Protein backbone atom coordinates (compact mmCIF):
# COMPACT_ATOMS: atom_id res chain seq x y z
CA UNK A 1 0.00 0.00 0.00
CA UNK A 2 1.42 3.38 -1.05
CA UNK A 3 1.23 6.35 1.33
CA UNK A 4 2.85 9.71 0.67
CA UNK A 5 2.53 13.12 2.26
CA UNK A 6 2.43 16.62 0.80
CA UNK A 7 5.61 17.35 2.78
CA UNK A 8 7.41 14.48 1.04
CA UNK A 9 6.25 15.54 -2.42
CA UNK A 10 7.21 19.18 -1.85
CA UNK A 11 10.60 17.96 -0.65
CA UNK A 12 11.07 16.21 -4.00
CA UNK A 13 10.04 19.41 -5.78
CA UNK A 14 12.73 21.28 -3.87
CA UNK A 15 15.51 18.77 -4.61
CA UNK A 16 14.46 18.27 -8.24
CA UNK A 17 13.57 14.57 -7.95
CA UNK A 18 9.79 14.99 -8.32
CA UNK A 19 8.03 13.02 -11.06
CA UNK A 20 5.20 15.03 -12.62
CA UNK A 21 2.96 13.84 -15.47
CA UNK A 22 -0.16 15.22 -17.13
CA UNK A 23 -3.54 13.54 -16.72
CA UNK A 24 -3.28 12.31 -20.32
CA UNK A 25 0.06 10.67 -19.59
CA UNK A 26 -1.24 9.14 -16.35
CA UNK A 27 -3.83 7.08 -18.25
CA UNK A 28 -1.06 5.10 -19.95
CA UNK A 29 1.07 4.80 -16.80
CA UNK A 30 -1.79 3.32 -14.77
CA UNK A 31 -2.58 1.04 -17.72
CA UNK A 32 0.99 -0.27 -17.70
CA UNK A 33 1.86 -0.32 -13.99
CA UNK A 34 -1.54 -0.52 -12.30
CA UNK A 35 -2.72 1.95 -9.67
CA UNK A 36 -0.24 0.86 -7.01
CA UNK A 37 2.73 0.92 -9.37
CA UNK A 38 1.69 4.31 -10.74
CA UNK A 39 1.31 5.70 -7.20
CA UNK A 40 4.91 4.67 -6.45
CA UNK A 41 6.20 6.11 -9.71
CA UNK A 42 4.28 9.42 -9.99
CA UNK A 43 4.19 12.27 -7.46
CA UNK A 44 1.89 14.83 -9.13
CA UNK A 45 -0.64 14.72 -11.96
CA UNK A 46 -1.48 18.01 -13.67
CA UNK A 47 -4.83 18.85 -15.24
CA UNK A 48 -6.05 21.72 -17.39
CA UNK A 49 -9.14 23.31 -18.83
CA UNK A 50 -9.79 26.38 -20.99
CA UNK A 51 -13.35 27.35 -21.73
CA UNK A 52 -16.04 29.99 -21.39
CA UNK A 53 -16.76 30.58 -17.70
CA UNK A 54 -19.48 33.19 -17.43
CA UNK A 55 -19.41 33.30 -13.62
CA UNK A 56 -16.16 35.25 -13.51
CA UNK A 57 -15.12 38.74 -12.57
CA UNK A 58 -12.58 40.98 -10.84
CA UNK A 59 -12.55 43.06 -7.65
CA UNK A 60 -10.84 46.38 -8.30
CA UNK A 61 -9.67 49.05 -5.86
CA UNK A 62 -9.08 52.40 -7.56
CA UNK A 63 -7.67 54.40 -4.65
CA UNK A 64 -9.16 57.68 -3.42
CA UNK A 65 -9.61 60.73 -5.64
CA UNK A 66 -9.12 64.35 -4.57
CA UNK A 67 -11.58 65.37 -3.30
CA UNK A 68 -12.73 61.83 -2.42
CA UNK A 69 -15.85 60.20 -3.78
CA UNK A 70 -18.07 57.39 -2.52
CA UNK A 71 -18.98 55.79 -5.82
CA UNK A 72 -22.63 54.83 -6.16
CA UNK A 73 -22.38 53.96 -9.83
CA UNK A 74 -19.23 53.27 -11.79
CA UNK A 75 -18.72 52.49 -15.45
CA UNK A 76 -15.51 51.06 -16.92
CA UNK A 77 -15.40 51.67 -20.67
CA UNK A 78 -19.17 52.16 -20.38
CA UNK A 79 -19.66 48.76 -18.67
CA UNK A 80 -21.31 49.06 -15.27
CA UNK A 81 -19.52 47.52 -12.29
CA UNK A 82 -21.03 46.74 -8.88
CA UNK A 83 -20.14 49.36 -6.24
CA UNK A 84 -22.23 48.45 -3.21
CA UNK A 85 -19.14 47.99 -1.01
CA UNK A 86 -17.02 50.79 0.47
CA UNK A 87 -16.13 53.92 -1.47
CA UNK A 88 -13.74 52.96 -4.27
CA UNK A 89 -14.08 49.19 -4.61
CA UNK A 90 -15.98 47.69 -7.53
CA UNK A 91 -16.65 44.26 -9.01
CA UNK A 92 -16.70 43.99 -12.80
CA UNK A 93 -18.58 40.92 -13.99
CA UNK A 94 -17.62 39.12 -17.19
CA UNK A 95 -21.13 39.07 -18.66
CA UNK A 96 -22.12 42.68 -17.90
CA UNK A 97 -22.78 44.45 -21.21
CA UNK A 98 -21.73 47.87 -22.42
CA UNK A 99 -24.38 50.58 -22.12
CA UNK A 100 -23.54 51.83 -25.63
CA UNK A 101 -22.19 48.80 -27.51
CA UNK A 102 -24.46 46.12 -26.07
CA UNK A 103 -23.37 42.58 -26.86
CA UNK A 104 -20.32 43.72 -28.78
CA UNK A 105 -18.41 44.63 -25.62
CA UNK A 106 -18.73 43.72 -21.95
CA UNK A 107 -17.02 43.09 -18.66
CA UNK A 108 -14.94 40.26 -20.12
CA UNK A 109 -13.43 42.71 -22.62
CA UNK A 110 -12.63 45.21 -19.87
CA UNK A 111 -10.78 42.46 -17.99
CA UNK A 112 -8.80 41.39 -21.06
CA UNK A 113 -8.02 45.01 -21.95
CA UNK A 114 -6.59 45.55 -18.47
CA UNK A 115 -4.42 42.43 -18.70
CA UNK A 116 -3.12 43.59 -22.07
CA UNK A 117 -1.93 46.83 -20.50
CA UNK A 118 -4.60 49.05 -22.03
CA UNK A 119 -6.02 52.05 -20.21
CA UNK A 120 -9.74 52.15 -19.49
CA UNK A 121 -12.07 55.07 -18.87
CA UNK A 122 -13.72 55.25 -15.44
CA UNK A 123 -16.89 57.28 -14.96
CA UNK A 124 -18.36 57.41 -11.45
CA UNK A 125 -21.25 59.24 -9.85
CA UNK A 126 -22.28 59.82 -6.23
CA UNK A 127 -24.86 61.72 -4.20
CA UNK A 128 -22.01 63.28 -2.19
CA UNK A 129 -21.47 63.33 1.59
CA UNK A 130 -19.53 65.48 4.06
CA UNK A 131 -16.58 63.07 4.02
CA UNK A 132 -16.97 62.14 0.33
CA UNK A 133 -18.03 65.44 -1.28
CA UNK A 134 -17.26 64.65 -4.92
CA UNK A 135 -20.28 63.78 -7.05
CA UNK A 136 -18.79 63.04 -10.48
CA UNK A 137 -15.46 61.54 -11.49
CA UNK A 138 -13.94 60.81 -14.89
CA UNK A 139 -10.43 59.42 -15.23
CA UNK A 140 -8.32 56.96 -17.19
CA UNK A 141 -6.65 54.04 -15.43
CA UNK A 142 -4.47 51.08 -16.29
CA UNK A 143 -4.04 47.90 -14.27
CA UNK A 144 -0.85 49.25 -12.70
CA UNK A 145 -2.70 52.34 -11.45
CA UNK A 146 -4.96 50.21 -9.27
CA UNK A 147 -4.15 49.05 -5.75
CA UNK A 148 -5.66 45.60 -6.19
CA UNK A 149 -7.16 43.68 -9.07
CA UNK A 150 -8.22 40.31 -7.67
CA UNK A 151 -9.97 37.88 -9.97
CA UNK A 152 -12.71 36.23 -7.92
CA UNK A 153 -14.75 33.78 -9.94
CA UNK A 154 -17.85 32.42 -8.21
CA UNK A 155 -18.29 29.36 -10.45
CA UNK A 156 -15.57 27.88 -12.65
CA UNK A 157 -14.31 24.51 -13.91
CA UNK A 158 -17.51 22.46 -13.89
CA UNK A 159 -16.69 18.81 -13.26
CA UNK A 160 -18.48 18.17 -16.54
CA UNK A 161 -20.96 20.03 -18.73
CA UNK A 162 -24.18 18.97 -20.36
CA UNK A 163 -23.94 18.93 -24.15
CA UNK A 164 -26.50 20.93 -26.14
CA UNK A 165 -28.67 20.41 -29.20
CA UNK A 166 -31.86 21.93 -30.59
CA UNK A 167 -35.01 20.03 -31.56
CA UNK A 168 -36.98 23.07 -32.79
CA UNK A 169 -37.33 24.20 -36.38
CA UNK A 170 -35.35 27.40 -35.89
CA UNK A 171 -31.73 28.19 -35.04
CA UNK A 172 -31.38 29.32 -31.43
CA UNK A 173 -28.53 31.24 -29.79
CA UNK A 174 -27.37 30.20 -26.33
CA UNK A 175 -24.40 30.22 -23.98
CA UNK A 176 -23.64 26.86 -25.60
CA UNK A 177 -23.29 28.61 -28.95
CA UNK A 178 -25.63 28.66 -31.95
CA UNK A 179 -27.69 25.50 -32.20
CA UNK A 180 -29.04 24.50 -35.59
CA UNK A 181 -32.65 23.35 -36.07
CA UNK A 182 -33.87 19.74 -36.05
CA UNK A 183 -30.89 18.42 -34.06
CA UNK A 184 -28.52 19.89 -36.65
CA UNK A 185 -25.50 20.03 -34.34
CA UNK A 186 -24.29 19.30 -30.82
CA UNK A 187 -22.01 21.58 -28.82
CA UNK A 188 -20.18 20.70 -25.65
CA UNK A 189 -17.64 22.10 -23.21
CA UNK A 190 -15.02 20.78 -20.82
CA UNK A 191 -11.69 19.02 -21.12
CA UNK A 192 -12.70 15.40 -20.51
CA UNK A 193 -9.56 13.44 -19.65
CA UNK A 194 -7.82 16.65 -18.53
CA UNK A 195 -10.75 18.06 -16.54
CA UNK A 196 -9.55 18.96 -13.01
CA UNK A 197 -12.55 17.72 -11.05
CA UNK A 198 -13.01 14.61 -13.18
CA UNK A 199 -9.52 13.55 -12.11
CA UNK A 200 -10.39 13.85 -8.42
CA UNK A 201 -14.13 13.23 -8.33
CA UNK A 202 -14.14 12.54 -4.57
CA UNK A 203 -12.25 15.81 -3.88
CA UNK A 204 -9.50 14.02 -1.96
CA UNK A 205 -6.97 16.75 -2.78
CA UNK A 206 -9.19 19.60 -4.01
CA UNK A 207 -10.83 22.16 -1.76
CA UNK A 208 -10.43 25.49 0.00
CA UNK A 209 -6.78 26.54 -0.07
CA UNK A 210 -5.63 24.30 -2.92
CA UNK A 211 -2.99 26.12 -5.00
CA UNK A 212 -3.80 26.15 -8.73
CA UNK A 213 -2.82 27.54 -12.12
CA UNK A 214 -5.20 30.41 -12.88
CA UNK A 215 -4.94 32.62 -15.94
CA UNK A 216 -1.21 32.08 -16.30
CA UNK A 217 -0.27 32.68 -12.65
CA UNK A 218 -0.68 30.95 -9.31
CA UNK A 219 -4.09 31.20 -7.70
CA UNK A 220 -6.16 29.41 -5.10
CA UNK A 221 -9.43 27.59 -4.69
CA UNK A 222 -11.63 29.53 -2.29
CA UNK A 223 -14.12 26.69 -1.87
CA UNK A 224 -17.13 25.19 -3.58
CA UNK A 225 -18.44 27.20 -6.50
CA UNK A 226 -21.98 28.48 -6.70
CA UNK A 227 -24.43 25.80 -7.89
CA UNK A 228 -21.94 23.14 -6.72
CA UNK A 229 -23.89 19.95 -7.36
CA UNK A 230 -21.47 17.17 -6.54
CA UNK A 231 -24.23 14.62 -6.01
CA UNK A 232 -24.89 14.58 -9.75
CA UNK A 233 -21.26 14.93 -10.85
CA UNK A 234 -21.49 18.66 -11.49
CA UNK A 235 -19.05 20.03 -8.94
CA UNK A 236 -17.76 23.59 -9.36
CA UNK A 237 -14.97 25.74 -7.94
CA UNK A 238 -14.79 29.27 -6.55
CA UNK A 239 -11.31 30.57 -7.34
CA UNK A 240 -9.17 33.67 -6.96
CA UNK A 241 -5.92 35.05 -8.33
CA UNK A 242 -4.02 38.28 -8.95
CA UNK A 243 -5.06 39.78 -12.28
CA UNK A 244 -1.84 41.81 -12.40
CA UNK A 245 0.15 38.62 -13.02
CA UNK A 246 -2.23 36.98 -15.50
CA UNK A 247 -1.68 36.52 -19.23
CA UNK A 248 -4.01 37.22 -22.16
CA UNK A 249 -2.95 33.79 -23.43
CA UNK A 250 -5.16 32.31 -20.71
CA UNK A 251 -7.80 34.99 -20.09
CA UNK A 252 -9.78 35.90 -23.21
CA UNK A 253 -13.02 37.76 -23.80
CA UNK A 254 -15.63 36.22 -26.10
CA UNK A 255 -18.94 37.15 -27.72
CA UNK A 256 -21.68 34.57 -28.11
CA UNK A 257 -24.13 35.53 -30.85
CA UNK A 258 -27.53 36.38 -29.43
CA UNK A 259 -26.38 35.67 -25.85
CA UNK A 260 -23.70 38.18 -24.91
CA UNK A 261 -20.19 38.20 -23.51
CA UNK A 262 -18.27 35.59 -21.57
CA UNK A 263 -14.73 35.08 -20.35
CA UNK A 264 -12.51 32.20 -21.38
CA UNK A 265 -10.50 31.18 -18.32
CA UNK A 266 -7.49 28.88 -18.26
CA UNK A 267 -7.15 26.78 -15.13
CA UNK A 268 -5.06 23.84 -14.02
CA UNK A 269 -5.19 21.90 -10.77
CA UNK A 270 -2.25 19.75 -9.63
CA UNK A 271 -3.24 16.48 -7.98
CA UNK A 272 -0.67 15.07 -5.56
CA UNK A 273 -0.60 11.27 -5.76
CA UNK A 274 -0.76 10.30 -2.10
CA UNK A 275 -2.02 6.76 -2.60
CA UNK A 276 -3.23 4.30 -5.22
CA UNK A 277 -6.86 5.42 -4.85
CA UNK A 278 -5.91 8.89 -6.08
CA UNK A 279 -3.69 7.35 -8.77
CA UNK A 280 -6.62 5.32 -10.07
CA UNK A 281 -8.89 8.38 -10.12
CA UNK A 282 -6.41 10.29 -12.27
CA UNK A 283 -6.49 7.51 -14.88
CA UNK A 284 -9.96 8.63 -16.07
CA UNK A 285 -10.37 8.65 -19.86
CA UNK A 286 -12.69 10.49 -22.23
CA UNK A 287 -14.68 7.27 -22.45
CA UNK A 288 -15.08 7.33 -18.68
CA UNK A 289 -16.62 10.80 -18.52
CA UNK A 290 -20.30 10.72 -19.42
CA UNK A 291 -22.85 13.49 -19.72
CA UNK A 292 -26.24 14.13 -21.29
CA UNK A 293 -27.18 15.85 -24.52
CA UNK A 294 -30.00 18.22 -23.63
CA UNK A 295 -32.53 19.82 -25.95
CA UNK A 296 -31.99 23.56 -25.48
CA UNK A 297 -35.00 24.20 -27.68
CA UNK A 298 -37.10 23.63 -24.56
CA UNK A 299 -37.42 26.99 -22.77
CA UNK A 300 -37.17 25.44 -19.32
CA UNK A 301 -34.56 24.62 -16.72
CA UNK A 302 -35.73 20.99 -16.96
CA UNK A 303 -34.71 20.32 -20.53
CA UNK A 304 -35.34 16.92 -22.04
CA UNK A 305 -32.33 14.63 -22.29
CA UNK A 306 -31.89 13.39 -25.85
CA UNK A 307 -29.34 10.72 -24.86
CA UNK A 308 -26.33 9.95 -22.68
CA UNK A 309 -22.96 10.42 -24.32
CA UNK A 310 -19.25 10.11 -23.44
CA UNK A 311 -16.59 12.70 -24.08
CA UNK A 312 -14.92 10.17 -26.35
CA UNK A 313 -18.00 10.22 -28.58
CA UNK A 314 -18.27 14.01 -28.42
CA UNK A 315 -14.62 14.47 -29.36
CA UNK A 316 -14.95 12.03 -32.28
CA UNK A 317 -16.68 14.74 -34.33
CA UNK A 318 -20.18 13.29 -34.50
CA UNK A 319 -22.76 11.48 -32.40
CA UNK A 320 -25.80 9.43 -33.26
CA UNK A 321 -29.19 11.02 -32.64
CA UNK A 322 -32.21 9.04 -33.79
CA UNK A 323 -30.11 7.05 -36.23
CA UNK A 324 -28.46 10.09 -37.80
CA UNK A 325 -24.86 11.29 -37.48
CA UNK A 326 -24.92 14.77 -35.99
CA UNK A 327 -21.72 16.89 -36.01
CA UNK A 328 -20.24 17.93 -32.66
CA UNK A 329 -18.08 20.92 -31.81
CA UNK A 330 -16.34 21.97 -28.60
CA UNK A 331 -16.66 25.38 -27.01
CA UNK A 332 -13.51 24.63 -25.01
CA UNK A 333 -9.99 24.44 -26.39
CA UNK A 334 -8.49 21.03 -25.74
CA UNK A 335 -5.23 22.27 -27.25
CA UNK A 336 -5.06 25.09 -24.72
CA UNK A 337 -6.10 22.74 -21.90
CA UNK A 338 -3.23 20.43 -22.81
CA UNK A 339 -0.87 23.43 -22.86
CA UNK A 340 -2.00 24.46 -19.37
CA UNK A 341 -1.44 20.96 -17.98
CA UNK A 342 2.02 20.91 -19.58
CA UNK A 343 2.95 24.38 -18.33
CA UNK A 344 1.86 23.53 -14.80
CA UNK A 345 3.93 20.36 -15.04
CA UNK A 346 6.95 22.46 -16.03
CA UNK A 347 6.42 24.90 -13.13
CA UNK A 348 6.38 22.05 -10.62
CA UNK A 349 9.36 20.29 -12.21
CA UNK A 350 11.41 23.54 -12.07
CA UNK A 351 10.53 24.07 -8.42
CA UNK A 352 8.44 27.19 -9.11
CA UNK A 353 5.16 25.70 -7.84
CA UNK A 354 4.50 23.65 -4.71
CA UNK A 355 1.42 21.52 -4.14
CA UNK A 356 -0.89 21.99 -1.18
CA UNK A 357 -3.67 20.14 0.56
CA UNK A 358 -6.99 21.90 1.15
CA UNK A 359 -7.80 23.21 4.57
CA UNK A 360 -11.34 22.00 3.85
CA UNK A 361 -12.46 19.53 1.19
CA UNK A 362 -15.36 20.26 -1.11
CA UNK A 363 -18.72 18.77 -0.07
CA UNK A 364 -19.31 15.49 -1.91
CA UNK A 365 -23.03 14.78 -1.99
CA UNK A 366 -25.00 17.99 -2.32
CA UNK A 367 -27.32 19.16 -5.07
CA UNK A 368 -28.05 22.64 -6.35
CA UNK A 369 -31.62 23.75 -5.68
CA UNK A 370 -33.81 25.49 -8.25
CA UNK A 371 -35.13 28.96 -7.53
CA UNK A 372 -38.13 29.22 -5.25
CA UNK A 373 -40.72 31.17 -7.21
CA UNK A 374 -43.55 32.89 -5.41
CA UNK A 375 -45.27 33.70 -8.69
CA UNK A 376 -46.52 30.48 -10.18
CA UNK A 377 -45.25 28.98 -13.40
CA UNK A 378 -48.01 28.76 -16.01
CA UNK A 379 -49.35 25.21 -16.28
CA UNK A 380 -51.62 23.74 -18.92
CA UNK A 381 -54.42 23.57 -16.35
CA UNK A 382 -54.22 27.36 -15.96
CA UNK A 383 -55.18 28.18 -19.54
CA UNK A 384 -56.82 25.09 -21.07
CA UNK A 385 -60.48 25.09 -22.11
CA UNK A 386 -62.39 22.67 -19.87
CA UNK A 387 -65.55 22.65 -21.97
CA UNK A 388 -64.55 20.28 -24.74
CA UNK A 389 -66.78 18.79 -27.40
CA UNK A 390 -65.87 15.24 -28.42
CA UNK A 391 -67.23 12.86 -31.00
CA UNK A 392 -67.57 9.08 -31.02
CA UNK A 393 -65.34 7.12 -33.37
CA UNK A 394 -68.40 5.42 -34.96
CA UNK A 395 -70.12 8.74 -35.70
CA UNK A 396 -70.48 9.72 -39.35
CA UNK A 397 -68.39 12.32 -41.12
CA UNK A 398 -71.62 14.26 -41.60
CA UNK A 399 -72.14 14.32 -37.80
CA UNK A 400 -68.58 15.56 -37.30
CA UNK A 401 -69.07 18.34 -39.87
CA UNK A 402 -72.32 19.40 -38.24
CA UNK A 403 -70.69 19.45 -34.79
CA UNK A 404 -67.84 21.65 -35.99
CA UNK A 405 -70.28 24.06 -37.63
CA UNK A 406 -72.42 24.29 -34.47
CA UNK A 407 -69.57 24.64 -31.96
CA UNK A 408 -66.96 26.52 -34.02
CA UNK A 409 -64.31 24.09 -32.76
CA UNK A 410 -61.73 23.19 -35.40
CA UNK A 411 -60.49 20.13 -33.52
CA UNK A 412 -62.71 17.31 -32.30
CA UNK A 413 -61.15 14.67 -30.03
CA UNK A 414 -62.47 11.22 -30.99
CA UNK A 415 -63.37 8.84 -28.16
CA UNK A 416 -64.32 5.18 -27.88
CA UNK A 417 -67.15 3.64 -25.88
CA UNK A 418 -65.17 4.15 -22.66
CA UNK A 419 -64.69 7.85 -23.45
CA UNK A 420 -60.95 7.31 -23.89
CA UNK A 421 -59.12 9.30 -26.55
CA UNK A 422 -58.46 7.29 -29.72
CA UNK A 423 -57.94 10.03 -32.31
CA UNK A 424 -58.64 13.56 -33.45
CA UNK A 425 -60.52 14.93 -36.44
CA UNK A 426 -60.17 18.46 -37.76
CA UNK A 427 -62.13 20.73 -40.06
CA UNK A 428 -59.41 20.09 -42.66
CA UNK A 429 -59.91 16.30 -42.38
CA UNK A 430 -63.63 16.74 -42.97
CA UNK A 431 -63.14 19.10 -45.93
CA UNK A 432 -60.76 16.61 -47.48
CA UNK A 433 -63.20 13.75 -46.97
CA UNK A 434 -66.07 15.72 -48.49
CA UNK A 435 -63.95 16.66 -51.52
CA UNK A 436 -63.28 12.97 -52.02
CA UNK A 437 -67.00 12.14 -51.56
CA UNK A 438 -66.32 10.11 -48.39
CA UNK A 439 -69.12 10.14 -45.85
CA UNK A 440 -68.24 7.06 -43.83
CA UNK A 441 -67.27 6.88 -40.17
CA UNK A 442 -65.10 9.35 -38.27
CA UNK A 443 -62.59 6.62 -37.40
CA UNK A 444 -61.88 6.22 -41.11
CA UNK A 445 -60.56 9.77 -41.49
CA UNK A 446 -59.28 10.63 -38.01
CA UNK A 447 -55.63 11.02 -37.05
CA UNK A 448 -54.82 8.12 -34.74
CA UNK A 449 -51.45 9.33 -33.43
CA UNK A 450 -52.58 12.25 -31.28
CA UNK A 451 -50.16 14.69 -29.71
CA UNK A 452 -51.49 15.27 -26.19
CA UNK A 453 -50.78 17.30 -23.07
CA UNK A 454 -51.36 16.71 -19.37
CA UNK A 455 -52.76 19.24 -16.94
CA UNK A 456 -49.66 19.75 -14.76
CA UNK A 457 -47.23 20.26 -17.64
CA UNK A 458 -45.64 23.69 -18.04
CA UNK A 459 -47.10 25.74 -20.85
CA UNK A 460 -43.59 26.46 -22.19
CA UNK A 461 -42.92 22.75 -22.67
CA UNK A 462 -46.25 22.20 -24.43
CA UNK A 463 -45.65 25.22 -26.69
CA UNK A 464 -42.35 23.73 -27.77
CA UNK A 465 -44.04 20.37 -28.52
CA UNK A 466 -46.69 22.11 -30.60
CA UNK A 467 -43.98 23.78 -32.65
CA UNK A 468 -41.98 20.60 -33.06
CA UNK A 469 -44.99 18.52 -34.17
CA UNK A 470 -46.65 21.29 -36.22
CA UNK A 471 -50.00 21.14 -34.43
CA UNK A 472 -52.14 24.03 -33.26
CA UNK A 473 -54.17 22.27 -30.55
CA UNK A 474 -53.79 19.40 -28.12
CA UNK A 475 -56.31 17.41 -26.12
CA UNK A 476 -55.46 17.42 -22.42
CA UNK A 477 -55.89 13.93 -20.96
CA UNK A 478 -55.70 12.18 -17.61
CA UNK A 479 -54.05 8.82 -16.90
CA UNK A 480 -57.12 6.98 -18.23
CA UNK A 481 -56.81 8.99 -21.48
CA UNK A 482 -60.11 10.72 -20.77
CA UNK A 483 -60.41 14.23 -22.20
CA UNK A 484 -60.30 16.87 -19.46
CA UNK A 485 -59.50 19.89 -21.58
CA UNK A 486 -58.08 21.37 -24.76
CA UNK A 487 -55.15 23.75 -25.20
CA UNK A 488 -54.53 25.70 -28.41
CA UNK A 489 -51.78 27.88 -29.82
CA UNK A 490 -54.19 30.83 -29.44
CA UNK A 491 -54.44 30.15 -25.68
CA UNK A 492 -50.65 30.21 -25.40
CA UNK A 493 -50.31 33.38 -27.49
CA UNK A 494 -52.86 35.17 -25.29
CA UNK A 495 -50.98 34.10 -22.14
CA UNK A 496 -47.65 35.49 -23.35
CA UNK A 497 -49.34 38.65 -24.68
CA UNK A 498 -50.76 39.33 -21.21
CA UNK A 499 -47.36 38.78 -19.58
CA UNK A 500 -45.56 41.10 -21.95
Helix vs. strand class: alpha+beta
End-to-end C-alpha gap: 65 Å
What fraction strand?
25-35%
In DSSP terms (H or I, runs of 4 or more residues), the helix count works out at 11
**Shape field:** globular
| Number of individual domains | 3
* Extended strand count: 33
Arithmetic mean pLDDT: 94
Determine the fraction of residues in helical runs and give it as a percent range: 10-25%
Calculate Rg over CA atoms.
29 Å
Biggest sheet architecture: 9 strands, antiparallel
Unreliable stretches: none
What does this structure look like?
This protein has 500 residues and is α+β, with helices and mostly antiparallel strands. It is 22% helix and 31% strand. The strands form ten sheets. Strands 3, 4, 7, 12, 18, 19, 20, 21 and 22 form a nine-stranded antiparallel beta sheet that branches. A hairpin with a 3-residue loop joins strand 21 and strand 22. The longest helix is centred in the N-terminal third of the chain and has 19 residues, at 23-41. The mean pLDDT is 94.
Amino acid sequence: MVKKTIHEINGRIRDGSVNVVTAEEMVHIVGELGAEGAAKEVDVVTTGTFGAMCSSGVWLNFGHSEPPIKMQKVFLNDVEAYTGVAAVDAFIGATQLSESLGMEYGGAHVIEDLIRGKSIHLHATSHGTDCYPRKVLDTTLSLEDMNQAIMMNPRNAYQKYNAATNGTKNTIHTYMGSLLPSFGNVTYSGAGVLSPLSNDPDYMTIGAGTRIFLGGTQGYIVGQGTQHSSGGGFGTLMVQGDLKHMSPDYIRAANFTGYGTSLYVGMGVPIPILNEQIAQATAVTDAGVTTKILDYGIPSRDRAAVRDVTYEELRSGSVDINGRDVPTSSLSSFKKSRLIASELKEWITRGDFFVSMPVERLPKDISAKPMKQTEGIALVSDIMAVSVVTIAKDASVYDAAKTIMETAFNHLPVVNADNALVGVVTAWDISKAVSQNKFDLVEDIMTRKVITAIADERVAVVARRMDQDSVSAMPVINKERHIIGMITSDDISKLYARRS
